[in-house]
Amino acid sequence: MAVTIQTKYGQVDISNEVIASIVGCAATDIYGIVGMASKNQIRDGVNEILNRDNYTRGVVVHQKDNKTIVDVYIIVGYGVKISEVCRNVQNKVKYNLETMLGAPTAKVNVYVQGIKILEED
Amino acid sequence: MVLEKITAHEFIDMIRLGSHRLEKNAQFVNSLNVFPVPDGDTGTNMNLTFQSGYKAVNEADTKHVGELGQVLAKGLLMGARGNSGVITSQIFRGFSKSIEQKDSLTPKDLVQAFASGVQTAYQTVMKPVEGTILTVARGASEAAQAVIDQATSIEQVMQAIVQGAKVALATTPDLLPVLKEVGVVDSGGQGLVFIYEGFLQAVGGSVTDDQAYQPDAQEMDEMLNAAHHQSVQTQFSNDDIANGFCTEIMVNLGEQPTSDERFDYETFQHTLSEIGDSLLVVADEDVVKVHVHTQRPQQVFTYGRKFGSLAKIKIDNMRIQHETIIENDEPKVVAEPIDYAVIAVVSGIGLEKLYQSLGVTTVISGGQTMNPSTNDIVEAIKNSNAKRAIILPNNGNIVMSAKQACKVVKIPTVIVPSKSIAQGMTALLSFDENTDLETNQQMMTEALATVKSGQITHAVRDSEVGTLKIKKDDLIGIVDGEIVINGDDVVQVSLAMCQVMQDEDSEVVTILVGAQGNQETARQISQAIVNDNSELEVEIHQGDQPVYPYLIAVE
């Protein structure tokens, strides 16, 4: 599946992996996120923080009625207001997808998979 | 009296003044907001966050600074709003952890607390983006570290903190390209500077006066434009835009008769986000401006009208890149609200442009006869959407209808009784939009006397004026309403008329070339005038006025 844009010269397909990367980069820009987590914690080991190349394992993208729905799996730092951080992720992801792809985003679902306790706490 | 330590009393004071200073400048912070999402709410978010911290501290029942720090951190955490709010709460969480055990703070403790705040703040993010609030917090803390050994008073530490924060804030555009593009410093960083300045005030330092800041209409527009460009740049091609109409509206909140809902930013923004993309909503107490790309502009209008009257509408079809004409049943488009309207009666395209370049807001076209009706003037004042108005009739015959207009309109309006185009121009040079109406009227009216106006035209019939015998179609020169010269050579007549107008104080001659005049002849007239009196400077402008091929003014 992918986002398809019809132009007068032909068709542009943007694969869901690319969208997932964009989502991952957008989410990890947000203050309070210390990492992306795998959506399959059982299979991939618990709370393993993904590195940049694997962001796609922490983002699920699918299309419904021509709109893009993304699920983002994150790990937050201890001590921040999680609800607010998630809202910031939703805002930023939606904004980035719409400006970069011009693709309407229906939903951004955020799953907090873990919390990272920092050294001094 | 030098403050050597912070007790509970000073601590509460610091939070109070920090919160107060941020609140006063929240709108200014909003106006800077372009990162991470340009939605113009950073100031509002930070303010709500910090208010929540202050409220908690204010209600706390303890005299132990360490405990107050805990209370502050918790209040900020509970009230954290937006990215900037989350970062702020984290900075003060680190700050309060460092002072947990202390019932008062020495300058050294304070420096360490700020350092601890920065450390905690940097730990809670995967990729610390430089050029943001983090950079400002770090710059402040490093500046304080630098004075840790010689600082004997709390105020010295806070001075260093504020100084360091300001220096770091100034570097943010170099660190974050998006800031440079729009030409702003980081909004969250600016918010933190306001908080720190409040702290400094509380411990005896002084800061520059508060600027009770409100982004003006133009700045709001700039923000909308920035959002529009950012979103448009990233489209593949205009043919493929799903939402083809770039729609902007401005709503005057709560203005009857259409307002039936209370405005709530979140709800408003959310509803519109369903209608289109590239959405930007900026609002203050009275006005909300919206920029959105949508297929259904009509829905945006309908929704906006629920909250007040639509003051401005703009639709661009992004596919064919020209403005679509709004159908007649749409609400009338009204100008931006402005302080002053300066309304002048002139005729001729060139003169209209000239007047606009001199700062006139509305030009009433006088037509051939230079005689607009009272109603024309009233309409011009109404449509200007200004708080006060000045009328320049530029003709003795119009003063009456202008006076009538003053009586009818709702806003304070005065007349500067200019009798000619040249007088009107001179009066405009004395206009100062930062001064009150009466002073402007007085200054502008006084300026009228400094200029003499001459008109060159053709006689429409034979007549005798004083010693002059004038035949039909003769060229005549009229100075301030009286015919002073006649002849058949335009350069000669103009020069003779100019000589009548000059005195020893004259410096500048302006020639306005009419629809029946030409630039070449105007240059000849100019040459003749300078040859006759080398003291004078001559300016030539294209005025396109009817009836008078040349208007000549001497100042």
UniProtKB/TrEMBL annotation, chain A:
It holds the Pfam family Asp23. It comes from the Bacteria. InterPro entries: Asp23. Belongs to the asp23 family. This is Asp23/Gls24 family envelope stress response protein. The lineage of its organism: Bacteria, Bacillati, Bacillota, Bacilli, Lactobacillales.
From TrEMBL, chain B:
NCBIfam families: YloV (TIGR03599). InterPro entries: DegV_domain_contain, DhaL_dom, DhaL_dom_sf, FakA-like_C, FakA-like_M, YloV-like. It comes from Bombilactobacillus folatiphilus. This is DAK2 domain-containing protein. Pfam families: Dak2 (PF02734), FakA-like_C (PF13684), FakA-like_M (PF21645). It comes from the Bacteria. Residues 9-201 form the DhaL domain.
